[in-house]
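Duplicate of earlier report; Efflux RND transporter periplasmic adaptor subunit input re-posted below.
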Amino acid sequence: MNRAIATGAAAAICAAAGAAFLVGGMPRGGSFAAQPIVSAAAAAERGEPIYYWDPDGKPFYSLTPKTTPDGRAWRGVPAGADVSFDDPEDAPVDTRAADAKAERKIKYYRNPMGLPDTSPVPKKDQMGMDYIPVYEGEDSDDGSVKLSPGKIQRTGAKSEPVVRRPVRSIIRAPGTIQEDERRVSVVALRFEGFVESVANVTTGDHVHKGQPLLNVYSPALSSAAAEYLSAISAGATGKELKGARRRLENLATPEPAIRELERTRDISLSIPWLAPQDGEILERNAVNGMRAGPGDVLFRIADHRLVWALIDVAERDLTQVAVGTQVSIRPRALAGQSFDGTVALIYPHLNAATRTARIRIEVPNPDEVLRPEMYVDAEIQAGTPGPVLTVPESAVLDSGSRQAVLVDKGEGRFEPRDVKLGRRGGGLIEVTQGVSEGEAVVTSANFLIDAESNLKAALKGFAETRGDKPAEPAAGGMGARP
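Output:
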């Protein structure tokens, strides 16, 4: 194919020479005058260029010296050089280099159109294109591929070393704020009684531990108080006195009320019932004069100084989350504010409808600006705990069932190699198997190199299958197919 193109180029140059003779030989008087034309043989004998080539490597040629618009001279091509049409950007190749390449042993010839068709002898395809010779060393048993410097430059192939570094990634997921179940308490009676009066508190009010909420009267409570006073008055000590006091404690009588009874030795008609903790009143069921039975919830109080953020994480990201992982919470209603917390629990079940797992994050809320049912966006700091072998994401060729990288062996040789991958993040991928630290992998144009590697592997396998015999052209096609 190159010979045919070179012949065409030579014919074009000769035609240009003839045109130059006709135009240059026309005298002003209107008659032709023979102009001396230097032949290529004469120019070769004197070592002069036989034609001139565009300095930018473009396919422009001239029989006479020329310059570019910016003043650069065209390259002179001597007779001992030829033009390589395999790599358009390459300069003319010296014939001595071609002779040196010809001394290498040709293993076989492959189809110029990339079809799996080889031949042990030179031949042409049905379009008249020469088969391309494959020399020893250009194909290797490890499936590697060797590219010329010009082809590497054109494809833009770049390599980076495999190094150890931590892989950091952020998992973003939505969630809601919920109360800490451990910080919710209720006010209820352990006996049957009556609510004489309720303090001036309503749902949503903040109360403090020990603050009176209501006054309670109960015959059972008065009876236990009278029994305790009788024991004190009788001078009882030890287990008897302790047992009388324990009956008051079993009825959940507030400690200040018991101490007041011991001080005054007087049984009050009603006893103040106190808030068991700090927090907001979520529920107020107590009403003046109501009858309350054992276990009836009169107040429900929650402490919001520590809240939970329940986040729904996609099933595929669940392996990157662990208890203790740092998380940043950004409430949608509080623009610009973020809160830090840690993963306290990963719930054991998945949501079958959304294929998500719920994780619980404990978030300090000293100002109580985070409110239950508030929507938040979480950023979970996932990644490897320490440095691991990593490659850029662009270095991995992933077909779904197979992951591979192209290892740069130097001198234009690239070896495809299967790898096993780990975590991803920050443009990096952890490699758990397949490469070693310090090896260089291709990070750009790897798809082009991989395509050529697959082509050469297919051609080699085709040649071995057919015993290196010439392939017969298929009827109606450009070459035989396996």
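The domain at 170-180+304-383 is CATH 2.40.30.170 (Elongation Factor Tu (Ef-tu); domain 3).

Merging into the original ticket.
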